[in-house]
Fold this sequence. Notes:
- The chain has helices at 8-15, 21-33, 35-58, 66-76, 81-88, 91-112, 123-135.
- With 155 residues, the chain is mostly helical.
Amino acid sequence: MNETHPSIERIVDYLHGEVSPAEDAAIYAHFATCPECEGKRAEEVAITDALRAYARATEREMPPGLATRIRTTAVDRQPTAWQRVLLGFRPAMLVPVAAVAALAIYVGYDSWHRTAIATPIKAADYVNNHAAMAASAPFGDAAPPLTLTSDDATP
């Protein structure tokens, strides 16, 4: 224990059995050697006994069958499917779900609204590539490859 004398709260916890076994033994040993703390313990025991006596004196009888009705109602009442769905949307769950949805919308917006960019094809590259492929064709005629030119002369 950090203190030399247990606090009133610790004494009450001791009386109700809410302390660890090691702390229980330490407090018990302290009561044996400290008459001041033993007096506080005796006062707390007297207060607890007086409260219990008052509760017993003013206690009213429960109507017959009330406890059974409470238990059967609690067991029979299962949440509906809609209630289970609504339980999933509690604030503790709603904030992370909203953050993930916002991130998905932010990241996905660019890909959803991207316009197609036309790839320009240079005609000269296409013609040169075609001529090179025609010249190296193994099954082609022995004639030299044709080359497109801008002059109107034909051979």
